[in-house]
Amino acid sequence: MHGSTELLAYARSRIERLSPTAAHAELSRDPRALLIDVRTASHRATGGHVPGAHCIDLTVLPWRLDPEFGWRIPEATSFDQRYILMCRHGFSTSLAAWQLGLMGLNNVADIDGGFEAWCAAGLPVDRSPTFMADVRE
Known about the structure:
By secondary structure, this protein is of the alpha/beta class.
């Protein structure tokens, strides 16, 4: 394997990827499924926030979702917890989903095209300043 393109292809061959509309449908019907937004605070400030998403910085994602780690989010209670990851374009979350799978979190998917594709599909986005209150970094 050589370079980032090959690494990305390798990771994507081992994870579940969802279209934005499929992710939205699953999140709407399954209250246990969690949308995890790993975009930076500045990207959320300029682009907006998906209502209900948990904002977790990519650098701490494995620790926040590990049900055995002391600094996990309250919802991370099981290795079977459903997580749907979203970044800006769908590159970072492909690698993150693969990494989480290596940790034993096997119910993880990422959104093909990320936040940009979510917006292009016309799915809900909160562009008000109050969304920053939910940031967990």
